[in-house]
Amino acid sequence: MSAGIEAMSPRKRALMASGALRRKLRAHGHRLDPLVQVGKGGVTKGVLAQVAQALFDHELVKLRIGTEAPVDRFAVADELAEQPGTQVVQILGRTILLYKRHPQKPRFEGKKDEAARPRGGRITGRGRRSRTASRSSRPS
């Protein structure tokens, strides 16, 4: 194998499988502020406890890795992904987005999510017709 493929394998291994859930989590995570920060002590028991509590409270947590952290961002992601039920959604720069499904009240998966999802039809926003509909209704 080439060195480029070996270098990419930890990155791919750390992320959750692609799909609709991952896209939705990335969209929700965009507006979040980091709740946990990894500093010069690295990933300690305290950081792991903080991440576990934040995941239980919020399901989706953004974690920031400080510039003084002694570990690589992919090593941090691998260590966090080893925790039971925790999945790494995205690694973007020094920011990691983590997800763990809530055992009683999941926000992003399950029946509640399916009920909130619009059924059928195309959403065009603000009650306007889509461009294709407005063009086809014009007189020739």
Number of structurally distinct domains: 1
CATH level-3 fold name: Translation Initiation Factor IF3
**Silhouette:** globular
- Count of discrete alpha- or pi-helical segments spanning 4 or more residues: 6
Instruction: Going across the biggest sheet, name each strand in turn.
Output: 1-2-4-3
Biggest sheet features:
4 strands, mixed
How is this structure best described in words?
- By secondary structure, the protein is of the alpha+beta class.
- The protein has one domain (7-110): Translation Initiation Factor IF3.
- 41% of the residues lie in helices and 14% in strands.
- It has helices spanning 3-14, 20-29, 45-58, 73-81, 111-116, 131-136; strands at residues 36-38, 60-65, 87-92, 95-99.
- Strand 1, helix 3 and strand 2 (60-65) form a beta-alpha-beta unit.
- Helix 1 packs across helix 4 (73-81).
- The termini are far apart.
- Mean pLDDT is 77; it is low at 1-7.
Entry summary:
The protein has helices spanning 3-14, 20-29, 45-58, 73-81, 111-116, 131-136; strands spanning 36-38, 60-65, 87-92, 95-99. With 140 residues, it is of the alpha+beta class.
